[in-house]
Structures are given as C-alpha cells and as structure tokens.
Write a structure and sequence with these properties.
The structure is a homodimer of 208-residue chains. Chain A has 208 residues and is α/β, with parallel strands linked by helices. Chain A is built from eight helices and nine strands. In chain A, β5 and β6 form a beta hairpin. In chain A, α1 runs antiparallel to α4 and α2 packs across α3. The longest helix of chain A has 19 residues. Chains A and B meet through α1, α5, β7, β8 and α8 of A and α1, α5, β7, β8 and α8 of B. Chain A binds a DNA duplex (24 and 24 nucleotides) through α3.
DNA sequence: TAGATTGTTAATCGATTAACAATC
DNA sequence: TAGATTGTTAATCGATTAACAATC
C-alpha cells in the first residue's frame, strides 16, 4: 500500500470513530452518504477515501461497519502498537492524557515528563510522571516513538532536540514555537491561538 | 479586501507572533527568507502571503517588522475586538484560558461555562465560570460571538445548537463530535486523537 | 425493470512553487 | 555595476468534485 495523503488519514481516523459509534448503536451497515452526513462531507469523498484503502463491498446495502473498522485499523494502526509520551504535564498535557484513558487503541501513552518536583513520580491522569532529566533514558527504555509536546514555548526547541537525539520518530507540537527537526522525524504542529484567530477572521468576514 | 484563504490567515497569525518575538529582540527589519526559516516554509510563500494582504516595502532591506505587525493586525483583527467564551472548563478549557492570559490581542475570553457546581461562580484560569443554564443569557449580555467548545463529546451537539440559537457567530470545536451548524456560523474543528493517529501513521510509513 | 448505490476516471478547483522582471 | 531581494505571473502539484458506467 502506497503512503496515503495526510488528509485522507485524518478522515479515516474520523470515519473509524464514527463507525464505532454506529456499531455501539447496533448498526451493521452504512451507506456512503450516511457516513458523509455524520462527518459533514460529501459521499463521493467517503467513497474515494475507501477506494484508496482498497476496500469495497459487493452488496449495494452500504459498507459492513465491522469490516470497515477492521480495514481502517489495518491501514492506520501498527500491528504491535506504538508508545507515546507527553512532555510537559500542565493542563493541556492532562487533557490529552485523560482523552486517551479507556480508549482502546494501538497507541499507548506510557509516560509523561515535567520539571515540577511536585509532579514527578506521581501518576497524573493515569500516567506516571518522570523528571525531564530522565527523558532520553526512558524514551529508549520504554521504546517510545511519539512525543506530544506541551511545554512552555521557550523550552520547545531544546526539548525537541533532546527528543530527536533520543530517537523519537514523530512529534506532535502543541507549543507556539515552530520547530525545525531533521526530515526523518515526522512533525505535526497545531496552535490553538492561530485557530482561534482564524475563527475570529472568518466571523468578521461573514458579517462584513 | 477580498476574503483570504484560510491557510493564508493561519500563516499570517503565525507570522505576527514570530514578528512580535523579533521585535522584542530588537530586530527592526526582516527578510522574507528569514521569516520563512523561522516558520519552516519557503520565502516565496511568505512573499506571496504578504502580497495578498497588499503590503509591500520600498527598501530591499526586508520588511519593517513593526509595520508588518500592524498591517497583519488590520487584516485579522476587528477594530473593536471580539468576545469569546469557553464552554466546558475542564483541563482543555483551562489550558486555553491560561494560554490567553496576558496575551494582548483583540480577542478576549470573557466567560466560561460548566455544569459542575464546584466551579460555578469561581474565577478559573482568570475567567469567571457561569452555570451552563445561563449560556444564552450571558452570550447575549456580554456580546460573545465566538465559542470554544470543550465539553464531553455527548454534549457537543445540543450545546452547539444552544450556542447557535443564542447568536454565536463562530465555533471552535475541540470535541470529537463532528458538528452540523447553519452555514452562517463559521465552524472550525480540531481533534487531538486524529492528529495523534496521523502522526502514528506517518511514523509507521517512514519506518516501513 | 427503475431506482439507488458504488467505484472510478476525468475535470475542476485551490494552493504551492518555479521562474523571472524590476529594483535597490 | 554585481548581487541580493522583492513582487508577481505562470506552471505545477495535490485535493475535491462532477460525471458516469457498472451493479444490485
């Protein structure tokens, strides 16, 4: 299977969650236009995404919900799962840790890191907090390949460097600092202030 | 000025923050390639974005940092500012409120809402928390036009409906529920689990 | 069959980048 | 001037959508 576009991967993740809801409600089959409506996109886009992952149905009665969940899992999950860590366990870090609790997924948050001695060695939102100084050692020990960066902006760059040196393969950066990492590390950045400013701009434009 | 693409608006917001940092460091002028490097994008993209907002410099010594900050502000800010509210003040809500504290921007978070009686009427992360039952009234009273939705997923849809009825103009949805709002309300959705799954997928692909 | 649905190609739309003239 | 930089058009790239044949 060729590498799929990022946008398609994002939608597949959303399809899966929606499908799991459908399954919980006892729905066994779903039409492309039903799934599209639940996601506020078009049915063609759903069908095209599903085409890209090589799944198809013989029936004209929609996709088999269970099957499709399984096939999406084969595309976006790894067989043996991946370990992740949250770097900086403030409000945002806790929010993410809490989101993950109880979600049965191939991704596991196995450690958090902080400099605050009041947090170190405690279990926070279900995950053990280690001192920042042990970052490299624990990433290697626990085979952590993904880091979720929620430290204050001024620490983002040095911490990212440490992460890369320690062998991290992917970083999800929630700090407001744009990072510059070597191209063999996958980097995804998201900034809440930017999103909010974008909403504000379009609110202004709509009412102009 | 025509409405600009969302991607450009996102980048303008980031340029501004970077430029404010530069200004704080005493930098008065910046070349397109410098700004591009700080943002990990290309210089052409920077120049094109700046072209789109109608700014240009006569000097070949880069853009005047102060001027450019001002011009970006004229594009993305409203003259009189906009008020926002956080709906659901859990960890994520608090993270956002805290991010905003001390940021001088035309956007103000003026209220938060929750159902937890232990939170109601307290000031949390610098913002007063009101009971969810007062949502409509306070949105109208305080002229709130943007809602940041950080409630549990099962409440997302009914709360969004209330928000729209109360006259909200833009919603930034951080819940995992895809919303369906009338087209005169601007909706921006972001889901952390999806982002993390995307990172996991590309980590897997890079190492395949 | 007629109507609904899927899978897929081709067309369109939008965003990025290459190329380059103009300017300092 | 030569070299660096900007502003802008045209080309390219990528993602979405329209159109439609095939199938139930």
């Amino acid at each position: 299977m060729n590498t799929l576009p990022g946008k398609t991967i994002g939608r597949l993740s959303e399809y899966r969650r929606t499908l799991l809801n459908c399954l919980a409600q006892g729905k066994t089959h779903i039409y492309s236009h039903e799934l599209a409506n639940l996601q506020n996109i078009t049915a063609v886009q759903v069908r095209r995404d599903i085409m890209l992952i090589g799944y198809s149905t013989t029936l004209k009665k929609g996709y088999d919900v269970k099957d499709l969940i399984k096939v999406i899992g084969e595309i976006i999950d790894t067989d043996d799962g991946l370990n992740a860590a949250i770097i900086g366990i403030g409000n945002l870090g806790r929010a993410i840790a809490t989101y993950f609790k109880g979600k049965r997924t191939k991704l596991k948050i196995v450690a958090t890191f902080d400099t605050d001695s009041g947090k170190i060695n405690r279990v926070i939102s279900g995950v053990k907090c280690y001192p920042m100084s042990d970052l490299s050692a624990i990433i290697k020990d626990q085979n952590i390949s993904i880091a979720i960066l929620t430290v204050p902006p001024e620490y983002a760059s040095p911490v990212a460097e440490t992460l890369v040196m320690a062998g991290i393969k992917g970083i999800l950066n929630y700090t407001s600092t744009a990072l510059n990492v070597s191209s063999n590390v996958y980097l995804e950045e998201y900034d809440m202030i930017t999103s909010l400013e974008k909403v504000a701009y379009f609110v202004k434009e709509k009412n102009a």
